[in-house]
Design a protein that fits this description.
Largest sheet: 5 strands, mixed
Structural class: alpha+beta
Number of helices: 21
Radius of gyration: 33 Å
Strand order of the largest sheet: 1-5-3-8-7
Oligomer: single chain
Number of strands: 8
Order of helices and strands: HHHHHHHHHHHEEHEEEHEHHEHEHHHHH
């Protein structure tokens, strides 16, 4: 019997030990990973909610379900004589109230079906003209969602009020204020229907769609780029880890799942690299598609004698001990990245620029053949790229500062700590964005002089925003590719000469060191000849 008790004690001890172990791992996994990037995770969750078509209508339905019992309760406590003194209040009997509520419920539900049908028709047209990836901009339109939600919310409110109308008691069985509010909501819904039609007419215009995509791009640029352009990314680095971390022991990092990379939680990645005493380098960027077999990065483990390993933590005399990635490392890493099987909303600048580029490419297709829309896209891309060129791009290097030890003197406390490298990401250059936006349009506009000249004008406009010689070389290269595209594909010699003359003037303008203080205007040889002739005649 004693052996059995010992066996039970040992089994209970093992169970408790295992439970404490997994509880510790769970706490380590979620307390660090989730709470570290809690604002970003909440913001991404909110973007997913408002990106769905059901969120705002559902909120309006719940509002209607809450307002109905609230107004009914007010009706039960309200003086009926006072209600009759209100000129615009409903004061009819139960049959009139029931008839009005039935009419309102049926009408708003029918109108809701009509608005839904109009929305589907607009989405179908937008998908064929602007591209299926632009559908999210229509689905996330707050105005459309609110109009549909107002109709369904009024319907839900009317049903509950209709249920509360009693025939046997005229004085207290007819909620006059509730019926009055329903009539008011019906009038509001009628006005919203007119607004909805007017809004949809403007929403399907190409200029509005381009402007919406441009606004999303500018918002993402403000999120990633600093106000002033300063190429010095390593001004706070006091060690040489940036030059030497590639020589450390490297462990390949595989994608935790297949799909498009939608979000990266930097603080969680930095915390993970700090806990394991190394540097996490990611080779993929937002919007990239990977499979679960792709190597998307490496973990570089610091050598045992590295100076950063001697940095003290909040516990005195406890140093960071680098160790090889284990199972917990991969579990925590999987929570630092968010993948989707289809490209969804993210704050990726390349994805936002791709929407404008897709509109331009579709406008240049033989089925649509709308070069003016493509020119508008080029101009919107110029605004976004110009803003990026004037700002500081995000640094690929991310650091953490070790906490100060409690035993340090006041003099040491006031001294800055050394920043330790923890995360290296891949940051696209401005030349990459120009190639994937203006360059993509150039490849589809090789036979259209209007678009090619718009691209040439865009290059000269971007020259006003350049801050270094590398950006100048990028613009000159794009200008050369525009020349080659026109020479190889334009039909008439006169068109080729016109494009080459504009590119030549643009090249001289870009190479001028004082060009940012001058005005560029292309004047063709024919226009110059006409202007000279007019000047001669006027003398």
């Amino acid at each position: 019997m004693a052996v059995t008790d010992d066996t039970k004690d040992n089994l209970l001890k093992r169970v408790l030990t295992a439970s404490l172990y997994w509880l510790k791992q769970f706490a380590q996994l979620w307390s660090l990973q989730t709470l570290t990037d809690l604002p970003d995770r909440l913001r991404n969750l909110w973007q997913q909610l408002i990106g769905s078509y059901w969120f705002i209508p559902t909120a309006c339905v719940l509002t209607g379900l809450l307002l109905a019992p609230l107004f009914i309760a007010i009706d039960q406590q309200f003086d009926r004589a006072t209600v009759r003194d209100i000129s615009f209040a409903f004061t009819g009997d139960d049959s009139s109230a029931r008839s009005i509520m039935t009419t309102i419920a049926g009408a708003v539900l029918g109108v809701a079906g009509t608005t839904f049908s109009i929305t589907i028709a607009v989405l179908s047209m937008a998908s064929s003209q602007f591209g299926p990836r632009l559908l999210r901009n229509f689905l996330t339109d707050k105005s459309n969602q609110f109009v549909l939600g107002a109709f369904i919310g009024t319907f839900s409110y009317s049903l509950l009020v209709l249920k509360s109308i009693h025939k046997y008691d005229v004085d207290f069985g007819v909620p006059h204020l509730s019926v009055t509010f329903a009539i008011f909501m019906a009038i509001v819904c009628a006005l919203l229907l007119v607004y909805f039609v007017q809004h949809m007419v403007h929403a399907i215009q190409a200029s509005r769609v381009i402007q919406g995509a441009s606004n999303d791009t500018i918002k993402n640029i403000h999120y990633w780029y600093s106000d002033n352009c300063d190429i010095q990314h390593q001004q706070d680095v006091a060690d040489s880890d940036i030059e030497h971390y590639h020589s450390w022991r490297a462990t390949p990092i595989y994608a935790p799942s297949s799909g498009y990379l939608q979000q990266m939680y930097f603080e969680s990645l930095i915390t993970l690299a700090k806990d394991y005493g190394g540097v996490v380098q990611l080779h993929t960027n937002l919007g990239d598609f990977v499979t679960d077999k792709n190597v998307i990065g490496h973990f570089y483990q610091r050598p045992a004698g590295h100076i950063s390993n001697l940095e003290k933590t909040t516990i005195s005399q406890l140093a960071i001990s680098p160790h090889t990635p284990d199972g917990i490392f991969w579990q925590r890493f999987a929570t630092c990245l968010h993948f989707e099987r289809q490209s969804a909303y993210s704050n990726d600048i390349g994805s936002s620029l791709g929407q404008i580029t897709e509109i331009a490419v579709r406008a240049l297709s033989p089925g649509i053949n709308d070069p003016k829309t493509a020119v508008n896209c080029v101009q919107s891309l110029t605004i976004c790229l110009s803003l990026m060129m004037r700002r500081q791009p995000p640094s690929p290097y991310h650091f953490y500062t070790p906490p100060k030890d409690k035993d340090e003197s006041d003099i040491t406390v006031n001294q800055p700590r050394i920043a330790i490298l923890a995360l290296v990401t891949r940051t696209p250059k401005i030349s990459d964005f120009i190639e994937t936006s203006l360059g993509e349009i150039r490849r589809y506009a090789t036979t259209d002089l209007m678009v090619l000249k718009a691209l040439c004008q865009a290059v000269t406009d971007l020259n006003y925003a350049r801050v270094n010689s590398a950006q100048r070389q990028t613009l000159l290269r794009e200008l050369t590719l525009i020349e080659h595209a026109g020479q190889a594909n334009l039909s008439y010699r006169e068109l080729v000469e016109d494009l080459l003359a504009m590119c030549q003037q643009a090249r001289q303008f870009i190479n001028n060191d004082n060009a940012q203080h001058q005005h560029f205007e292309y004047i063709s040889e024919f226009d110059a000849h006409i202007y000279k002739a007019l000047q001669t005649q006027s003398r």
